[in-house]
């Protein structure tokens, strides 16, 4: 089954962008996933093809018009389309690996990329858009956020990663950050690879990695560590 992404944007040329390369690019040419873009401006209603207007109540910037966006959504993603409708937005639920996995298990996504100050609230409500944030900072538009989300999803699609194990052992998959990695040379600038990793004792290696993952999570991300402890109780 193909994971289908439809992106509504004022900048369709930004896609697939970096997703045409590497793992995602190969998966796309193999038909594992597809991406189409919809130019929001094509659904404008006036001769100036305007997509935004000044904010009700005053203030800086412009707001994306609900009537134009509704036409774009309804034409390209009718109500019976089973795919989740996402709006990239700093006010959304922060994207997590669990959410990425949920999306990767589904049929695809319809993703609206905001610009200017954002989108008229009535559109968000009436088209039941699920707001998703990629972090607590402000981008100039939703396009790069959509690329981030898709990159995270596509690498989890069946067959995309060479070694399917590597998907389940990573940071966040078990609520912990990942252990450190080493490779040859065995000594780099006087620093050897930890002995245990060269011991060939797989039980000991797994225990060492687990202990390191816990240590790093505890030090760097007290929030994740707390959640991890809660889950174990
Ligand atoms: N005025 C808004 C920010 C608008 S930024 C506010 O203060 O909340 C313009 C667009 O960029 C947004 O509509 C959204 O689509 C996108 N965007 C910006 N930051 C983002 C983030 N952290 N995650 C996801 N999308 C983001």
Going by helix content, strand content and strand pairing, the class is alpha/beta
Number of domains as seen in the coordinates? 2
Tally of contiguous helical segments: 8
Radius of gyration from the alpha-carbon trace, in angstroms: 22 Å
Tell me which CATH architecture of the largest domain applies here.
Answer: 3-Layer(aba) Sandwich
The backbone outline, from C-alpha atoms, is elongated
Question: SSE string, helix = H, strand = E?
Answer: EHEEEHEHEHEHHEEHH
Q: Beta fraction of the residues?
A: 15-25%
Bound molecules: S-adenosyl-L-homocysteine
CATH H-level superfamily title of the largest domain = SPOUT methyltransferase, trefoil knot domain
Average residue-wise pLDDT: 96
How helical, in percent, are the residues? Answer: 25-40%
Distance between the termini: 38 Å
Oligomer: single chain
Which regions have little confidence, pLDDT < 50, spanning 5+ residues? Answer: none
Q: CATH top level of the largest domain?
A: Alpha Beta
CATH fold group of the largest domain: Alpha/beta knot
Q: Please give the largest β-sheet.
A: 5 strands, parallel
Number of strands: 9
């Amino acid at each position: 089954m193909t994971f289908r992404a439809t992106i509504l944007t004022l900048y369709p040329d930004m896609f697939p962008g970096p997703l045409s390369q590497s793992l995602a690019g190969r998966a796309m040419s193999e038909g594992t996933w597809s991406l189409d873009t919809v130019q929001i401006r094509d659904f404008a209603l006036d001769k100036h093809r305007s997509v935004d207007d000044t904010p009700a109540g005053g203030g800086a910037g412009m707001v994306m018009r609900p009537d134009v966006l509704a036409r774009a959504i309804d034409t390209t993603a009718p109500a019976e389309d089973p795919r989740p409708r996402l709006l990239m937005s700093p006010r959304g639920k922060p994207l997590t690996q669990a959410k990425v996995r949920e999306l990767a298990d589904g049929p695809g996504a319809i993703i609206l990329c905001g610009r200017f100050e954002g989108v008229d609230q009535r559109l968000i409500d009436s088209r039941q858009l699920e707001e998703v944030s990629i972090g607590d900072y402000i981008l100039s538009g939703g396009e790069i956020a959509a690329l981030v989300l898709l990159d995270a999803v596509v690498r989890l699609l069946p067959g995309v990663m060479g070694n399917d194990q590597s998907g389940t052992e990573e940071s966040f998959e078990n609520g912990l950050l990942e252990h450190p990695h080493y490779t040859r040379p065995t000594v780099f600038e006087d620093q050897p690879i930890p002995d245990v990793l060269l011991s060939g004792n797989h039980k000991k290696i797994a225990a060492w990695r687990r202990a390191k993952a816990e240590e790093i999570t505890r030090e760097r991300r007290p929030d994740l560590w707390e959640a991890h402890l809660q889950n174990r109780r």
